Amino acid sequence: MKFLTEIGRVLYEGSRAHADWEIKTANTILRSRKRLLVLGLLLLPILIGGVVFADQLVGGLPEYLGGKTAYSPSFFTMRVFLASIAIGLCAGLITGCIGAGGGFIIAPALMSAGIKGILAVGTDLFHIFAKAIMGSVLHKKLGNISVALALIFLIGSGVGATLGGWINRLLYDFNPIISDAFITTIYVVMLGALGLYSLTDFFKARKAQDGGGSAHGGKDEGTEMGNLPRKLQAMNIPPMVTFDQGIIPGGRRISSWFLILSGFLVGLCASIMGVGGGFLTFPIFVYVLGVSSMTTVGTDIFQIIFTAGYSAIGQYAIYGFIFYTLAMGMLLGSLLGIQIGALSTKVVKGITIRGFYAMAVLAGFANRLFALPSKLSSVGAFPLSKETAAIFDTIGIWLFFVLISIFALWVIGTFVMNIKKLKGEEA
Q1: How large a percentage of the chain has pLDDT more than 70?
Q2: Which parts of 191-282 are beta strand (E)?
Q3: What DSSP letter does each residue of 4-32 carry, written as one string?
Q4: Contact 329, 115 (CB under 8 A)
Q5: Of 50, 146, 175, 306, which is the most exposed, with the fewest CB atoms less than 10 Å away?
Q6: From CA 135, how far away is CA 1, in angstroms rounded?
Q7: Could you tell me which residues come within 8 angstroms of residue 409 by beta carbon, excluding any fewer than 6 positions away?
Q8: Whole-prediction pTM
Q9: Do 61 and 74 touch, CB atoms closer than 8 A?
Q10: Measured between alpha carbons, how far is 255 from 249 in angstroms, rounded to an integer?
Q11: Cis link prior to 239 (omega < 30° from 0)?
C-alpha cells in the first residue's frame, strides 16, 4: 500500500507539472489570432470531408472501430464530433480547475465509448501533438531548456516510443481484445496508484483543515537533491553531460546513459498509454536525476513536442490508428475546459478541488477495472458468462460517465454562478 502511494505521489507531481504546460499552451493558442486561424484550418478539411463522405462511410463504421481494420481519415458525424468535444471539455476542466493533468481520463473515456484501445491511444497522442505545435512557446522558454539534456533524452524517448508503438500494433494485429486488455491493465495500475494517493492526500488535507489554498501550488527551484540523484551524479560513466550552469555554480553533471534510459521509459509509456510523457518526465528529472525544476519545465515542453509528435505520426498515423475527428474535437473541448476550470479555482476552496480530482481519477480507475474481467475472459484467461461480463462493463461505464458528468456540471455551474465576481476580479 505504501509503495503504491509513493508511486501515486510521483505521478501526481508529474501530472501537475504537465497540467501547467497544458494551461500555458491553451492560453497561448486562445490569445493569438494566428493560432486560432491554424486551428480553424485544421478543422476545416475534417468537417468538409465528413459532410461529403459521411453517407458512404456509415456502413463501414462498426468494422473500422470494432474490428481489426483501422480507417483513416476518420469517420464523421456531428454526434461523434460533439462527443469528442465533451470528452475534451471534461479533461480540460480537470486540468484547469485542479492543476493536474486530465489526459488520464481521455483513453478510458474513448474506450468506454466503443473506440478500440489502439485508436484511443493514437488519437490522444495526435491531440497532444497538435496542441503542442500550435501552442509552442519555445522561443520564450529557451533560457530554461538544456539543449544537451533534451537531445540525449530524445534518443531514449525515440527508441521507447518505437518499441511502445510496435508492442501496441503487434498485440492489436494478433488479437484486438488482447490489445484492449493490455492497455486497460496499464491504466488500472497507473490510475489505481494515482487515485489512492489523491484520496489519501485529500483526507490528510481535510483533517488538517488546510482548505484555503490554491490548487496550483508553486514549485521550488529544485536545487536540493535527495540521495538517489547524488549517487547517480557521482557515477562517472562517460559520456557525461553538464546542465544547470545558470542555477548552480559550475553546473551539475550526469551520465548520458541515465538520460537515455529515462527517455526510453518516458517514450515507452507515452506510446503505449497515449500521453505526452510529461507526467513522468518531471518526477524523473527532479527526483531521480537531480535536475532543477526550472530546467525541467523548459526541457519537458521541448520533449513533449517531439515525443508526442513522433509517437503520433511515426507509430500510429502512418498505420491508420488515429481518429482525426475525435482528436480535433478533443482539442476544441480541452481549450474551452481549461479556461473555465482555471477561472473556477478563484472561487473554490483548494480542499474541494483535491476531492474532485481524487473522484475523477478513481472514476477512470473503476471504469477500466470493471472493463478488465470481460476482456480477460474473452481471451480465455478465466471463464465468465457474457451476461456477467456485460454487467461489469455497464457498471464501469455508468460509474465513469456519471462521476465525470457530476464534476463537469459542478465546475461549469460554479463558473456560471460566479461570472459577476470573476469579472470584478479581472477588472
Answers
A1: 79
A2: 240-243, 252-255
A3: HHHHHHHHHHHHHHHHHHHHHHHHHHHT-
A4: no
A5: 175
A6: 39
A7: none
A8: 0.77
A9: no
A10: 19
A11: yes
